[in-house]
Amino acid sequence: IPGEPYTLQTNVYVRGSGDGRIVGREMRFHLWFDPTAAYHTYAILWNPDAITFFVDDVPVRRYERRAELTFPDRPMWMYGSIWDASDWATDDGRHRADYRYQPFVARLDRFVVAGCSVSAPPACRPVPASPAGAGLTAQQYAAMRWAQREHMVYYYCNDFRRDHSLTPEC
Fold it and tell me: Are 30 and 151 in contact (CB under 8 A)?
């Protein structure tokens, strides 16, 4: 919608796809900038202790391992897509995608994938989230609190329409 913020959706699936009881753990944010005006950096850092989502080096979400049942049990895989999110991204479907503006295009620049595979030798160490090690620095936590307080528009644990028996971390 012209003049309205763009929405970034983050999601974590514990059991992957094709398992029947797939439960997403979504968080959505209105971006604090126009992502079409210039390039921005989006990153996902997946370590054994947490999955952290960054926008321009600001951590917007950290999904920590609290128990094996609530943390992904399969190796990470990724894909990119452009899809019609009219059902939720535009006031719960009040404003549908306008296909007169197609083709919709995304450009990736300096795309980097690095890390340790599941079968990597013990010498392979995951990349830390910060210079402090596995966790975030105090400055990073403050930036994440700001992003969540000022820009988060959906959090699955606060959605009363969901069955929270499938998300025990809530």
Answer: yes
Burial (CB count <10 Å: 0-12, 13-18, 19+), residue 89: buried
Q: Which residues contact 25 (CB under 8 A, 6 or more apart)?
A: 11, 12, 13, 14, 63, 156, 167, 169
pLDDT tens by residue, 54-75: 999 999 999 988 876 777 777 7
Does the predicted model carry a pTM greater than 0.90?
no
8 A C-beta contact, residue 156 and residue 25: yes
| Terminal CA-CA length for the chain | 32
Distance in angstroms (rounded) separating the CA atoms of residues 108 and 144: 24
Q: By three-state DSSP, how is residue 40 classified? A: coil
